[in-house]
Amino acid sequence: MPSNNPVRVRFAPSPTGHMHLGSARTALYDYLLARQIGGQFILRIEDTDKKRYIPGAEDELMAGLHWLGINYDEGPDIGGPYGPYRQSERKEIYQEYVRRLVESGHAYYCFCTPERLERLHQEQMKQKLPLQYDGTCRNIPLEESDRRRAAGEPHVVRFRTPKDGSTTVRDLLRGDITVENRSLDDAILVKSDGWALYHLAAMVDDHLMKITHVIRGSEWLPTFPLHALIIRAFGWEEPEWAHLSVFLKPSGKGKMSKREAGDLLKDGYSIFIKDLEDLGYLPEAVVNWISLMGWSYDDHTEFFTLPDLVEKFSLRKLNPSPAAINFTKLDYFNGMHIRSLSLDDLARRIKPFFRKEGVQTDDETLLKISPLLQERMVTLDDAPYFGRFFFQDTVQPDPEDLVAKGLTPQESAELARRSYEILSGLSDFDSETIEPPMRAMVEASGYSAGQVFGILRVAITGQKVSPPLFESMAIVGRQKVLERIQAAIRILENMNSV
RNA sequence: GCCCCCAUGGUCUAGUGGUUAGGACACAGCCCUUUCAAGGCUAUAACAGGAGUUCGAGUCUCCUUGGGGGCACCA
Predict the structure, then answer these.
(1) Do the Cβ atoms of A391 and A365 come closer than 8 Å?
(2) Which of A185, A230, A234, A467 is the most buried (most CB within 10 A)?
(3) A281 to each of A55, A70, A74, A295, how far by Cα in Å?
(4) Measured between alpha carbons, how far is A176 from A353 in angstroms, rounded to an integer?
(5) What's the ipTM?
(6) CA gyration radius for chain A?
(7) Is the CB of A118 under 7 A from strand B?
(8) 3-state SS class at A193
(9) Is the CB of A300 under 7 A from strand B?
(10) What is the four-CA torsion angle of A365, A366, A371, A376, rounded to 10 degrees?
(11) Catalytic residue positions of A?
């Protein structure tokens, strides 16, 4: 619910792997909420765990956001009034706040060794008991624990979870959730190396950074009550919470494994943002697609640009149930967004895909073929598939394809010769000039348009599937068209009838 | 084992007590058509199961089942 305060939301990923669709959606919703109410969107890096840190992950995150068009107002690279925006640079802040919790009795120092904890865990497993800390250090007087700490005894800090009663928290998607406090663990807030854990660091940062709405994954639902308890222990005001459902694999059965995610690539799909550009997807399409996984607008609108989404997004319409990833719908949206691109924009975007295929292009031709390619492309890398012949000096048609269905090579060659005659005698070489006499020739020949134009298509484009023939011919140009027909005639003449 | 969340066609979803259960993707067919598309039209297809509340339940309650998540000195 909008409050009187300006909306401030944060995207707080940890740099421990590739940015995927789930995090992109969370960031998108954050961004939309901030933009529509005129608030701020903050990027905060949660990198307190050095063991899991992956170099480059932070850059990939920022590149991914940038590619998607999701811009943030405050972050590690651009700064802001509430920095630093990397948790690894905020250690002292957490220490200060943890001490407050200890002194107010909401947290305590725990000297239990990992070995003892492991034995406890095993015992609880054996007895089929809930896996929780047993409270051994819960009642050590503060003076004593301070003394032991000063003496250098290894320790962590744990939250003193109430043992009686229950805790109710409110999620924007699910309403009130109540849990018995006895099912909550005395979670560790600070590790023995002095670094704060997520539970503490994120709550402190959200408060200090004046975050009003926390949008995060539903994997945080089980620890949600703990987080609320920590905030309440500080006496702070709680933000609004929205826990987004997870993404399931396309079958809808379970989350995608690392292995499955990797296998996707050979089908031209990926759940990693970094791969999507290379696969020929438009950021506009990706944004549109993920926006609709767990959110809806109304009955008849599904095509959205980022500005549309800013205008229409609403937390109220978020859906709590898990959604299966549907890549064919991404393909659909990609086609739609490709068709909504201006011609010069399209020309610019397909250029690298020709280059990747080793096809030399020129901007003028690129612009001319764009309208021809536009309505038949699903992904940007379809462009060289349909249009490489525009840029080649010669094409290499498959002789079999040159022979029209139901005709002999000789008959096909004859049709090609008649086409050559007409084409070479034309005053102009645009599609409007080419089409009428060619149709008349087909009419007179007694063959079908499909047969005759099929021969020419293969002869001129080197492929059975291509953009419209006459427009293509006009762009290829008379000289090359005639050369290619000539070459095709030679091939046909050298074939034996079957 | 314990805790939490979820449940409408194959998939994404609309629906907040009374609807012929709506839309989108995919699929099939038709139209258009020189190929492939795009576009238009049509069809197939869903309230997980069981109790209860109510005159009336997809919608509220409970149970079952199924799915998902969590139970780290990760986030």
Answers:
(1) yes
(2) A230
(3) 26, 16, 28, 21
(4) 50
(5) 0.95
(6) 32
(7) no
(8) coil
(9) yes
(10) 120
(11) 258
Strand-pair partners of A171: A175, A241
Residue with CA nearest C1' of nucleotide B73:
A191
Q: pLDDT digit string (tens) for A127-165?
A: 888 899 999 999 999 999 999 999 999 999 999 999 999
Q: How far is CA A73 from CA A99, A140, A296, in A?
A: 31, 45, 26
Alpha-carbon dihedral angle through residues A314, A315, A317, A321, given to the nearest 10 degrees: 150
A127 phi/psi in degrees, rounded to 5: -90, 5
A80 touches strand B (CB under 7 A): no
Q: Report chain B positions within 7 A of protein CB atoms.
A: 1-8, 10-15, 22-26, 33-39, 67-75
The two three-digit tokens of residue A139, written as one number? 């009642």
Please state whether strand B lies within 7 Å of residue A457 at its CB atom: yes
The helix/strand/coil state of A419 is helix
Q: Is A96 exposed, middle or buried (0-12, 13-18, 19+ CB in 10 A)?
A: exposed
A204 φ/ψ angles, rounded to the nearest 5 degrees = -65, -45
- Residue A96, phi-psi category: left (phi > 0), alpha (psi -120 to 50), beta (remainder): alpha
Residues 134-193 of A with CB under 7 A from strand B: 154, 156, 174-175, 177, 179-180, 183, 185, 188, 191-193
Task: Name the residue among A178, A145, A175 with its Cα closest to residue A160.
Answer: A145
pLDDT tens-place string over residues A231-252: 999 999 999 999 999 999 888 8
**Predicted confidence band of residue A298 (pLDDT cuts 50, 70, 90):** confident
Using CA atoms, how far residue A193 sits from A127, A135, A200, A245, in Å, is: 32, 21, 15, 33
How far does the CA of A311 sit from the C1' of B47, in Å? 32
- Name the protein residue, with chain letter, whose CA is nearest the C1' of B2: A130
Q: Roughly how many angstroms between the first and final C-alpha of chain A, as a whole number?
A: 76
A108 C-beta less than 7 Å away from strand B? no
